[in-house]
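Any chance you could type out a protein's amino acid sequence plus the matching backbone structure tokens because I've never seen that pairing?

——
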Amino acid sequence: MRTIRPVLLAAAGVLAVAGVTACGADGEKDAATSDAVTVKATDTTCEVGTTELTAGQITFSVRNSGSKVNEFYVYAAGDRVMGEVENVAPGLTRELRVELPAGAYETACKPGMSGRGIRGALKVTGAAATPKAVDATLAEATAGYQRYVTSQTAELLTRTGEFVAAVKAGDVARAKALYPVTRTYWERIEPVAESFGDLDPKIDGREEVVEEGMEFTGFHRIEKDLWTTGDISKDGPIADQLLTDVKAIVAKANAEKLTPLQLANGAKALLDEVASGKITGEEERYSHTDLWDFSANLEGSKAAIAALRPALEQRAPDLVRQLDAEFANVEQVLGRHRAGDGWKLHTALSTAELKELSDSVNALAEPVSRVAAAVAR
């Protein structure tokens, strides 16, 4: 979940700066694509170049002229995420490509990457041109990735049931052991899972959701109790609600019809998750099991790219070779921190080791950021 307390991100010091500013290579440009909708973001404003667009594939060029790291979202009704671009560092521009059918939407810039953001209305009219998914290789890419999502949601549901049972039984040791494993299945498909309005913060929101007027529930509320007091005697209702919410999001994720651009954007979003939360230790601040999440985000990103690979081999073979090399590099660097069947705790890694991981992720994020453009050709 992307709600990040700005003061904590700033306190992460060198690592936060490395994780964000290194993104200057991954998709930012000094000049916007000529037909892109310009978005001028500052710490207090979000100026979108137009409030009415024609349905189809749309590119937004997001320029951050503020002092805080920013994000840009396109929301459908119920705060369903249609597209997003994160980690837009001050002074940089990043692009978001998204397919929008006719309808009413909201745009939002999020200075400091927190809160509901600075919102504006966006109207999309007309009928979209024939979608890219009619291309056989892209159609198979979306079908193949949907099968991956289905396999992960099935395991997520099973593991969440086991985790909830352990919490309700008061079995702290078993709940602690199941926690990072269960979250692996969530983290692999997070861009799909988090697109459904308030279900994401209910399941995966960190303590800052209270500042946004929501109750602190879900995985991280139970994580806090497990690792701070060890008292989960009152967490039964929270655990039950977690399972109910996971069932709801599994049903929605399995019914979702994905587009090739969603796969490409999702692959990049998972790497942004690593840069903004896992590297800094912000995500799993009580359990320090961030490397389980890191690994899962990496696997989910790789799965989306693998689904798109046949199309990319036709359209951008040089990009495929670079992706293969950078994925292999991150896996090698991360692999040094294995501990049995799992991973070392975040607190066990030195600043130099965390920076090495950050640098490897940023090197991978650059070619991944170019996948959407290749798919959109």
Observations:
- The chain has 13 helices and eleven strands.
- Confidence is low (pLDDT under 50) at residues 1-32.
- Residues 136-168 form the longest helix (33 residues).
